[in-house]
Amino acid sequence: MSDGKIALVTGGSRGIGRDAVLRLAARGVSSIITYKSNRAEAEAVVALVEQAGARAIALRLDVGEAASFDGVVEQVRQALADLGASRFDYLVNNAGTSSSASLETITEAEMDALYAVHFKGPMFLTQKLLPLINDGGRIVNISSGLARFAMPGRIGYGPIKAAVESLTRYMAVELAPRRIAVNVVAPGPIATDFSGGMVRDNPEVNKAISATTALGRAGLPEDVGPVIAGLLSDDFGWVNAQRIEVAGGIHI
Ligand code: NAP
Questions:
Q1: CATH homologous superfamily of domain 6-246?
Q2: Is 31 in a helix, a strand, or coil?
Q3: Ligand 1, from 10, 16, 157: best to mutate by most atoms within 8 Å of Cβ?
Q4: Which of 2, 66, 147, 183 lies in the 20 to 30 Å Cα band around 164?
């Protein structure tokens, strides 16, 4: 158990983030979860966390809107007060959306949006939240297998996730004096709502993924959530600045 610890998980209302929040709750970690527009899903996660005996508060956040982060930090400060704390321990920069544009079709606006959501968002949200993170805390950023291997139609998304992996190492170096470890989890294709639920709902895509994955199937949120929660636990306290691919061995 991790009594009294608090996590902030962006995009904790659905998919991978939701599973991580539930795994943390099972370890006694309370969470501030963020959602972008789907409040009902977020409140459902809050209820599940409370059933598990931990506490949770849902806040609205668009990670693509860095100009809103000062206001978000004030909301986090208030949420922490409601949880009886002034700081939190674990930050998971998970929220994000997909892109299926190719080199021929991607627009400058789409690339700017990917940069804002997947790179600028985690960088500046972390910057603004730093005063609220306990020394000795931990950060997990979320990348993708597509940062290591390339596929058609992912030319905006894959490279920006590769940048998140580099950002992770820079964060680990700069936050070392505060003993904050920063790691990056790179999921393979996971059956969530992501990309219109493609991995979960498109049988052809699901079959193709299974065929290129050593363990023979596409991933599930419950394959990834425990890894994120594990990296935030004392068991992984000496793991720092590492990329952990959670993909069942895809494109080895
Ligand atoms: P998901 O099921 O679609 O859930 C996305 C979550 O992020 C939701 O909570 C959503 O909130 C929130 N969100 C979306 N856009 C946001 C924004 N602009 N600002 C703030 N919150 C936002 O996605 P997922 O599959 O769990 O993916 C989570 C992370 O894993 C992402 O960073 C993604 O790139 C990465 N990833 C996913 C896969 C995969 O195959 N699924 C593979 C590799 C990496 P609402 O519910 O309010 O919309």
A1: NAD(P)-binding Rossmann-like Domain (3.40.50.720)
A2: strand
A3: 16
A4: 2
Give tens-digit pLDDT for 211-228. Answer: 999 999 999 999 999 999
Residues annotated as part of the active site: 157
Q: Whose CA is nearest to atom 19 of ligand 1?
A: 62
pLDDT in tens, 5-29: 999 999 999 999 999 999 999 999 9
Please provide the size of the chain in residues.
252
Q: Which residues form ligand 1's pocket by a CB distance below 6 Å? A: 10-11, 13-17, 34-38, 41, 61-64, 94-97, 117, 142, 144, 187, 189-190, 192-194, 199
- How many CB atoms neighbour CB 47 within 10 A? 10
Of 68, 61, 23, 27, which Cα lies nearest the Cα of 42?
61
Report the separation in Å between the CA atom of 38 and the middle of ligand 1, taken as the mean of its atom positions: 12
Is this prediction's pTM over 0.90?
Answer: yes
Paired with 164 in beta bridges are none
SS3 136: strand
Question: Which amino acid, one-letter code, is at 56?
Answer: A
CA-CA-CA-CA dihedral for 64, 245, 194, 141, to nearest 10? -20
